Amino acid sequence: MNSPSRPLEKAADKYIVVLESGATSADLDLVERAIAQPLVSSAELGSDLQASEVYARGQGIYFKNLNVAVVDDIDTLRAARAIRGSSPVIHVERERLFYAISGAAVAPPPNRKQMRESGVGTRADGRLLVEVAALRQNLLAMQQHLDGLDALLRELPDEDPSGLDRSGALSWGLRAVNWAQAGKYTGKGARVAVLDTGIDPGHPSFAGRPLIGKSFVTDAWDADRNGHGTHCAGTIAGGRTQDTAATAFGVAPGAELYIGRVLSDAGSGATSGIIDAIDWALEKQCRVISMSLGSAVEIGEAPSMVFERVGERALAQGCLLVAAAGNESRRPQSPPRPVGSPANAQSVMAVGAVDERRRVASFSNGGINAGDGGSIDIVAPGVAVLSVRSSLGGPGSGLYTDKSGTSMATPHVAGIAALLVEQNPSLSGAGLWQAVVGGALAMPELPFRDVGAGLAQCPRA
Amino acid sequence: MPSRVRAGGGSPAGGVPSEGPVAPRFIAGLPTGFVVDHAAWQTLEAAGAKIIAYRPRLDLLVLEIADPEAFVPPAFIAFLEPDRMMSAEEE
User: ipTM surpassing 0.90, yes or no?
Assistant: First the structure.
């Protein structure tokens, strides 16, 4: 509520002239004569003509969609006369100043004393009824206008759909995967499933975008209170930060996201739920499934036959499964730990992590069980990765945050796969696998056991 | 293929903690194209497994097995794995 110490609204020097709906140009001529000011349509306003310039030259502005004109410093007697007779003007009042209260802008209604002072003594007084009717009419018009803008906003893409704007600041992750060379490719038309903790659909990176989701745990797919899934989805298909730096961080901003929630708010979930989600993603014809999740395995432990089966079936249907290699290693104090499950299945692409200086991340698992299929296939940026922060929960503050893990490397590869799908939609699953690893930048200075084919790279446009 | 399932490997139903005893879950692989018809369903139930989900696209079943020690998989089960828990791979 308003603070009692706040001064009452100070009268501004403009007037709001409320017109009957459907005012014609002849009506506007009448209004212009009544208020002795020419009116300019709001449609003419823009970068070449500011509202302040219109007022400065003694003209008013007519907002057609609102049936309202705003005029500067008119003669109050003329304004009162304008309401009478056959004029389309139904109400004139002085502009008020508005104050923000808990994020909403409202004007306080006048109190009884103020109304008595302005001469309104009874309910039968027509002025108040006219004002209420006019405000209701305005409210309706503004709601329609707002609905129209909302619909427009939903249709607009988050990012330049042409994908040509590759200038400006880039996250180190995008620089490392050579995002600038992807040119026109944005992942448009590629369906990418993100099996994780869900998403914050209200984040500016996702608001207005068509998101499809399903939960395979008790938490809702669109209520990511952990933040992990939102961060990963941002790396795959987010846009640019909305600060002055406008840093791009999403690999494939044109990709279609399918959010399969398989991890709870605590960040864990069962294999059975993941299997169900993969089945759902295949039904939805996703071409890439990104899994920034896993379970540690022992040295010598064979890969899961379940995920071997699932990976093979997905590839046969043209879909690539990408999974995090795991974070159990503590380099250089200890030898690396083996690639976890499901990444250790031969038919699932295992992604390790590197830092900004292209060193293997200290936590990134290695191909210790390579004889059983548990090799690293590729690496991607996974240390201090900039992406979206869920507003619904999780550590940090603000709209964006850095996270580390093979979880963060995995969505880089998923995004690159989406670009490749756009480049060549007819790629088979095996063809897509080959295109991803074949395009990697070899890192001969590092052990193959730790980096596989090398650093993932975006396709050249 | 082990004749009996190792006990204690499966997750609680749905991977979500709940009150009271919960039968462990397992994921069973089927031969390619195998159709779980009424007879197969009855065979599994007779062996002590309850079918939670059937994913013919993947030739997989999700089973709840109340007594894993006593469960002897029918011949059409190609492999059986505990429903293990997975976690987000964030540092």
Answer: no
